[in-house]
Design brief:
Layout (H helix, E strand, L loop, with lengths): L1 E2 L2 E2 L3 H4 L5 H6 L11 H24 L7 H19 L8 H26 L6 H21 L5 H26 L1 H28 L2
Antiparallel strand pairs: 1-2
Helix pairs in contact: 3-4, 3-8, 4-5, 5-6, 6-7, 6-8, 7-8
């Protein structure tokens, strides 16, 4: 079933209540109620940069020995705070807990894929880049399915991947230049800003399709 260019999500994603019919029932006036992509990207960049800096703090301050356990601890921070930071980018009442649940599911899928590439390739052969590309494609697909979005899948992934990569690369450069705790924290800040900008854009266009 289609309405206003948006299709109903698959049954397993309807429980989130983020598709157009559910948001309209809660008083949303329609896709036009979403923030513009630019504003959403900017707000996403700022809020997610804070979350990412906190997450990278585990590595920056050596709060956990390097290895899978450290990556798992960082992922827990993202899972716990990421959706809350992005919830305000979705229009309609009760969006924050719904977006928090959606982000937890989608980020878990992304993190699982990224770690599979990183540890599977032992950090070689651009493992982080491949992990991000495939992981973000899966993350974008999960988010779009929850909203019942149709069309623009490649564009949404391309923007998310580009913003994420730019933020991660800038962070890497800052870390290489500064090193130490400050360098590691700034890597997290830059990575989060890029990632958040991409997610903000994705959430905006997804609500409109």
């Amino acid at each position: 079933m289609r309405r206003c260019g948006v299709s109903s999500p698959t049954p397993e994603m309807k429980w989130l209540g983020l598709h157009l019919e559910a948001r309209t029932a809660r008083g949303l006036e329609g896709p036009g109620g979403a923030m513009s992509p630019g504003v959403s990207a900017l707000k996403g960049a700022v809020s997610f940069a804070i979350v990412s800096t906190i997450a990278y703090g585990i590595w920056a301050f050596r709060l956990w020995p390097y290895g899978p356990g450290m990556y798992a601890a960082i992922a827990v921070v993202y899972l716990g705070l990421g959706g809350f930071a992005l919830g305000g980018l979705v229009s309609g009442r009760g969006a924050i807990p719904r977006v928090t649940a959606l982000f937890a599911v989608s980020f878990f899928v992304y993190a699982l894929i990224w770690c599979a590439f990183w540890f599977g390739l032992r950090g070689k052969f651009h493992a982080d880049l491949w992990g991000a590309a495939i992981g973000l494609a899966a993350m974008s697909a999960v988010i779009r399915r929850a909203f019942g979005a149709t069309g623009g899948a490649l564009e949404a992934w391309a923007v998310l991947f580009t913003c994420h990569t730019l933020g991660y690369t800038l962070g890497d450069e800052l870390h290489a230049a500064l090193r130490g705790v400050n360098g590691r924290l700034l890597w997290g800040t830059a990575h989060g800003a890029g990632f958040g900008a991409g997610l903000g854009y994705l959430l905006s266009v997804t609500q409109r399709r």
